[in-house]
Amino acid sequence: MSEEITLDGIGVAPGVLETIAQVATQSVEGVAAIVLAAGGLAGLVPKGAARGVVVEVGEGNELTASVRISASYGRPLREVATEVQRAVTDALLTHTGQAVASVDVYVDGVVFPDEQ
After folding, report:
1. Residue 20 and residue 73 in contact, taking contact as beta carbons nearer than 8 Å
2. What is the pLDDT of residue 50?
3. What Rg value do the Cα atoms of the chain yield, rounded?
4. Rounded mean pLDDT of the chain?
């Protein structure tokens, strides 16, 4: 995803969409961190994947997002994941005007209060 993405005639760098999704994810209560992709080495893993957030443009210019998080202990995982889906969907739709087909949330860990 190093090439520019075209949304309704406007060129957008892929990192812009991923930053929007990242900021939305970090705003959700219960998200302790966005998890880096496993085994990523600088320059060998695409930038978004290294940050744990990937946004792609699919058929019909619909956006799809994938987010990897660590959740704060004590919050129901389903609620945290659902809130991340809502936040990312709303942020991408608001900032781009493009429909969001899916937001996949992967909970890769739980962070306990004494670790935060």
Report:
1. no
2. 56
3. 14
4. 86
Specify whether the CB–CB gap between 83 and 47 falls below 8 A: no
Q: Helix (H) and strand (E) counts for the chain?
A: 3, 6
Q: In the chain, what are the domain boundaries?
A: 5-115
If you average pLDDT over residues 91-95, what whole number do you get?
96
> Whole-model pTM above 0.70?
yes
Nearest to 55 by CA among 34, 29, 27: 34
Yes or no: say if 100 and 62 are a contact pair by the CB < 8 Å rule.
Answer: yes
Cβ atoms of 68 and 22 within 8 Å: the answer is no
Distance (Å) of CA 27 to CA 6, 86, 104: 27, 11, 17
Q: How many other C-beta atoms lie within 10 A of the C-beta of residue 90?
A: 12
Query: 45 to each of 39, 52, 88, how far by Cα in Å?
Result: 9, 11, 22
Band the pLDDT of 38: cuts 50, 70, 90.
low
- Does the domain at residues 5-115 carry the CATH identifier 3.30.70.1350? yes
